[in-house]
Design brief:
The protein has 82 residues and is mainly alpha-helical. It has four helices and two strands.
Amino acid sequence: MYYLVVSLPETLRRHATCPEAADVHPHQIRDWYRPQDLLKRVREHVIPEASAVHETTALILADTRLDREAPRRFAERTTRPS
């Protein structure tokens, strides 16, 4: 499991760019927001707010070993006779 650490100001900024922004008001998000709201019984990989999309993606792909599987599967699909 992964937990993305995002500050309240950044959460509100990101929310404003979503199509659902009109349905959920910032004051509701402020009420729901819990900093460092990690699960108690599950180890979560904490991803910092500053982590770039490519860094986060690389981490998850490596953790799940999909970074090794995807190239092999792609090669199998592209080398099969039609």
